[in-house]
Amino acid sequence: MQKTILKLWTSGGHCSFHKDSRKDLGGGLRWQRQDNEFLTAVKNAPSPGNFIFVGVMTAQKYLNNRAVAAHRTWAQTVPGRVQFFSSEGSDTSLPLPVVPLQKVDDSYPPQKKSFMMLKYMHDHYLDQYEWFMRVDDDIYIHTERLESFLRSLNSSKAILLGQMGTGAQNEQGTLALEPGENFCMGGPGVVMTREVLRRVAPHIGQCLREMHTHHEDVELGRCIRRFAGVQCVWSYEMQQLFYENYEPDKKGFIQDLHNSKLRHAITLHPNKSPPHQYRLHGYMLSRKIGELRHHTVQLHREILQMSDLTNAEPCEEDLLLGAAPSLTGLQPRRRQDVLEWEFFTGTHLYSSSDRYPPRRTLSAPLRAALHDIVVQVMETLNTNGKAMNHVVDFKEVLYGYRRVDALHRAEYVLDLLLLYRRLKEPGVAVRVKRHAYLLQTFSRALFQEERDMEAVQLADRIDQASSPIAYIHKSHGRLSPLRLGDSSSAFRPSLETVNILVPLSGRFDVFIRFMGNFEKVCLASKQAVKLLVLLFSAENEEGGSESKRGQAESTKHAELMSEYHRKYPWADIAVQPVAGPFSRGLALHVGSSHFSNNSLLFFCDVDLLFRADFLMRCRDNTILGEQTYFPVIFSQYDPKLVYEGRARDSQYVFTSRTGLWRHYGFGIACVYKGDLVRAGGFDVSIQGWGLEDVDLFNKFIQSGTRVFRSADPGIVHVHHPVVCDPQLDARRYKMCLGSRASSYADTLQLAQLWLEKNGQAFHSTNITQTHTN
């Protein structure tokens, strides 16, 4: 804008000078002088990148934690410059701009530090920035909102912004404030124009000599009011823009990220914990991503509208994301496409789905989603409320319904209890109930499943990837590039070895499938793993045909492992014979005894298929001495019923018709050997099917070790017939029968199969009765 104005002004000015020079030379010189003054003003005006200077007060003991956290988060997007002001002798070698103020220490209250920081701003940057801001190192600034708000104001005037304060109740009369005087509270930040700084800087020495209190922000406000002629803006809105956490149980950081006050605040204070500073920054970035996705959907809708006007053929993505929101747009064509509504109250969710209990507590993600939805509803209701002299406050969600189409949208029907208040009558509020019908559309998916590939193809695909995959290793805490399939030693030492323990008895065909997956995932890409197969033999004391068959199968297992040894001589794979009848607990006990206490163990089954991303989660979610990982496994239904005899494209298909998540299965786990020992290990007396996993899980709970559970899409339990031994005790036999019953198919599909088989007979019976009568 400045360049455009400059071009027009200089052209007009020079034309006027040449045109009128013969008639009035003095007039032309006057125009030329105005031209020069404008050019000088434009030359000295701040550039868009020099909009605001932010001075952060800190101390030497906070430079390497709070200051670094602020520098790495909000300070990166300030439209100007950020500098950290500390005491004399502070370390300037840290990766952030530190200014050690001469003859200033870190004593509290930091009155001298605050005033000398303002003097430094004035002496070095007065003519380079429009706005100047004084903040503490425990603040978080939403820089986009700050810039947007300040650009709406006239920066050429003397303006002082912040959260207005007059002192706490017990300080009234002790701060030397006259009636009608205030100050900007230092915690949420103080913003001033260049004119305020220009007026007050020459008098800083006098202000330091004539202080009446020990409060730094009070004295700063007094000095500005005395010598700049302005004080903090009297506006209730400033309390919302410059947010101070007044919660009585505050812990020094912003804990509730779903607080509606955070949505419009410019500054948030205090946030003294660096991890919570990063957490808050991540939340703000996620909000920004959500806003951009919403804008993307709006653009797709505009494209679709333009396609209708121009008769252009819209692409599939525009058709999917650009569809106008409608509560009647979902029209299922098949019974299985019908989405069932779930009913919820303020505390519980009620569902008819067989995947969950009919009544369960509202989960934290659902509560957070409802909170965000309510905030958006209230913002919509109050958009024009102030102009119409009323405001609507939210009280509670009385009840509601929801249904979710995981690919496209979520629908809500909410019964809300609200308070209707007139601004001119603040003491009067009317309770009203309103229904809200809401539709939440989804943007495009951020991932897609790849089809199954052979091991060699997979390795080639990974090696040819154009960009490395980034991961954060839990031991080092730093972001490092990783290219899967890279056999160099550049990253191998940083990847912890996962020791895979597989109990096995017979089932050679299933073992062939397991080893094929192990080759594709681990051997072809040279993963940092070790495989130990704990093999039971079918031998018995009497010998006979069963014993010979067991010996023959054991020989085939050993021969298969030898083939993989010859193909991958560097691979760490081994077979450990285990004597006696099959006992999963005994096998894992024997296998774990071969490892040291700091070894990471993965208790696996031969029926499982897993991917490389699961191995990374196994590493990242298991912490020695602190946490174990019990992933929730997706268990496939009988493919004969699900796929009706057709070939499957992939084993990693997660729908309610293809399988279920085993929330009550605890057999698959990633643990450290030391934590296993401290918990008490496996109960080796348990033989046959079940209970050894539940026993171990309970031991970890009782030992105080944190147990982390999550549905893991990188590992699948392949369906196989379940054989329940009648010789099991009554409890385990009942559990086995229940597990077998749940492995056939989805309840709805079983019901449909039953109706298909019995519907014709029922119809024939009715016909017969009709003719008889």
TrEMBL record:
<keyword id="KW-0472">Membrane</keyword>
<dbReference type="InterPro" id="IPR008428">
    <property type="entry name" value="Chond_GalNAc"/>
</dbReference>
<protein>
    <recommendedName>
        <fullName>Hexosyltransferase</fullName>
        <ecNumber>2.4.1.-</ecNumber>
    </recommendedName>
</protein>
<dbReference type="GO" id="GO:0032580">
    <property type="term" value="C:Golgi cisterna membrane"/>
</dbReference>
<dbReference type="Pfam" id="PF05679">
    <property type="entry name" value="CHGN"/>
</dbReference>
<keyword id="KW-0735">Signal-anchor</keyword>
<keyword id="KW-0333">Golgi apparatus</keyword>
<keyword id="KW-0325">Glycoprotein</keyword>
<keyword id="KW-0808">Transferase</keyword>
<dbReference type="GO" id="GO:0050510">
    <property type="term" value="F:N-acetylgalactosaminyl-proteoglycan 3-beta-glucuronosyltransferase activity"/>
</dbReference>
<dbReference type="InterPro" id="IPR051227">
    <property type="entry name" value="CS_glycosyltransferase"/>
</dbReference>
<comment type="similarity">
    <text>Belongs to the chondroitin N-acetylgalactosaminyltransferase family.</text>
</comment>
<keyword id="KW-0812">Transmembrane</keyword>
<dbReference type="GO" id="GO:0047238">
    <property type="term" value="F:glucuronosyl-N-acetylgalactosaminyl-proteoglycan 4-beta-N-acetylgalactosaminyltransferase activity"/>
</dbReference>
<keyword id="KW-1133">Transmembrane helix</keyword>
<dbReference type="InterPro" id="IPR029044">
    <property type="entry name" value="Nucleotide-diphossugar_trans"/>
</dbReference>
